[in-house]
Design brief:
With 107 residues, this protein is α+β, with helices and mostly antiparallel strands. It is 38% helix and 25% strand. The chain contains three helices and five strands. Strands 2-3-1-4-5 form a five-stranded antiparallel sheet, covered by helices on one side. The longest helix has 20 residues, at 3-22. The protein starts with a helix and ends in a 6-residue tail after the last strand.
Protein backbone atom coordinates (compact mmCIF):
# COMPACT_ATOMS: atom_id res chain seq x y z
CA UNK A 1 0.00 0.00 0.00
CA UNK A 2 1.14 3.48 -0.66
CA UNK A 3 0.94 6.48 1.69
CA UNK A 4 -2.13 7.93 -0.05
CA UNK A 5 -4.12 4.68 0.40
CA UNK A 6 -3.10 4.42 4.06
CA UNK A 7 -4.08 8.04 4.68
CA UNK A 8 -7.49 7.56 3.06
CA UNK A 9 -8.09 4.40 5.12
CA UNK A 10 -7.15 6.22 8.33
CA UNK A 11 -9.52 9.10 7.52
CA UNK A 12 -12.36 6.68 6.74
CA UNK A 13 -11.78 4.88 10.05
CA UNK A 14 -11.74 8.17 11.96
CA UNK A 15 -14.99 9.34 10.34
CA UNK A 16 -16.68 5.98 11.04
CA UNK A 17 -15.53 5.93 14.67
CA UNK A 18 -16.66 9.53 15.26
CA UNK A 19 -20.05 8.89 13.65
CA UNK A 20 -20.56 5.77 15.75
CA UNK A 21 -19.71 7.58 18.97
CA UNK A 22 -22.03 10.48 18.14
CA UNK A 23 -24.88 8.07 17.38
CA UNK A 24 -24.92 6.58 20.90
CA UNK A 25 -28.28 7.34 22.50
CA UNK A 26 -28.25 9.79 25.36
CA UNK A 27 -31.90 9.24 26.13
CA UNK A 28 -33.57 6.93 28.61
CA UNK A 29 -36.46 4.74 27.51
CA UNK A 30 -39.01 3.44 29.96
CA UNK A 31 -41.63 0.82 29.18
CA UNK A 32 -44.83 0.97 31.21
CA UNK A 33 -47.69 -1.42 31.79
CA UNK A 34 -50.91 0.58 31.51
CA UNK A 35 -50.48 3.63 29.22
CA UNK A 36 -53.45 3.33 26.84
CA UNK A 37 -54.01 6.82 25.43
CA UNK A 38 -52.63 10.32 24.99
CA UNK A 39 -54.23 11.34 28.28
CA UNK A 40 -52.28 8.67 30.17
CA UNK A 41 -49.12 9.72 28.34
CA UNK A 42 -49.60 13.38 29.32
CA UNK A 43 -50.00 12.46 32.99
CA UNK A 44 -46.82 10.36 32.99
CA UNK A 45 -44.91 13.01 31.00
CA UNK A 46 -45.95 15.67 33.53
CA UNK A 47 -44.40 13.57 36.30
CA UNK A 48 -41.21 13.12 34.26
CA UNK A 49 -40.90 16.85 33.51
CA UNK A 50 -40.80 17.41 37.27
CA UNK A 51 -37.55 15.39 37.48
CA UNK A 52 -34.46 17.62 37.57
CA UNK A 53 -32.60 17.57 34.25
CA UNK A 54 -35.44 16.33 32.03
CA UNK A 55 -35.50 18.40 28.84
CA UNK A 56 -38.00 16.50 26.71
CA UNK A 57 -40.33 13.51 26.88
CA UNK A 58 -41.42 11.66 23.74
CA UNK A 59 -44.09 9.00 23.82
CA UNK A 60 -45.09 5.96 21.80
CA UNK A 61 -48.49 5.04 23.25
CA UNK A 62 -48.85 1.99 21.00
CA UNK A 63 -45.61 0.43 22.31
CA UNK A 64 -46.11 1.87 25.84
CA UNK A 65 -42.66 3.46 25.80
CA UNK A 66 -41.57 6.91 26.94
CA UNK A 67 -38.27 8.41 25.79
CA UNK A 68 -36.73 10.90 28.21
CA UNK A 69 -34.08 13.28 26.92
CA UNK A 70 -31.82 15.06 29.42
CA UNK A 71 -30.72 18.67 29.37
CA UNK A 72 -27.21 19.28 28.03
CA UNK A 73 -24.40 17.93 30.22
CA UNK A 74 -26.91 16.24 32.54
CA UNK A 75 -27.08 12.64 33.70
CA UNK A 76 -30.57 11.66 34.74
CA UNK A 77 -31.17 9.58 37.83
CA UNK A 78 -32.71 6.24 36.81
CA UNK A 79 -34.28 6.02 40.28
CA UNK A 80 -35.89 9.47 40.00
CA UNK A 81 -37.31 8.61 36.57
CA UNK A 82 -38.64 5.26 37.80
CA UNK A 83 -40.32 6.86 40.82
CA UNK A 84 -41.84 9.63 38.69
CA UNK A 85 -43.43 7.03 36.42
CA UNK A 86 -44.65 5.00 39.42
CA UNK A 87 -46.79 8.00 40.39
CA UNK A 88 -48.98 7.31 37.33
CA UNK A 89 -48.24 3.82 35.97
CA UNK A 90 -46.25 0.64 36.56
CA UNK A 91 -42.74 0.75 35.07
CA UNK A 92 -41.61 -2.53 33.50
CA UNK A 93 -38.19 -1.69 32.03
CA UNK A 94 -35.89 1.31 32.04
CA UNK A 95 -32.89 1.51 29.71
CA UNK A 96 -30.43 4.35 29.42
CA UNK A 97 -26.83 5.45 29.78
CA UNK A 98 -26.78 4.18 33.40
CA UNK A 99 -27.88 0.66 32.45
CA UNK A 100 -31.00 -1.48 32.12
CA UNK A 101 -33.38 -1.95 35.04
CA UNK A 102 -36.45 -4.16 35.53
CA UNK A 103 -37.09 -3.01 39.09
CA UNK A 104 -36.62 0.28 40.93
CA UNK A 105 -32.95 1.31 40.68
CA UNK A 106 -31.06 1.96 43.89
CA UNK A 107 -29.58 5.23 42.62
Amino acid sequence: MNIKTLLLAAIALLVTTTATQAAEPTYTSITVQEMHCAGCARKIAAQLYAVRGVKEVRVNVEKKILYVLPSANTTLSPRAIWIAVENQDTPIRLAGPSGIFISRPKS
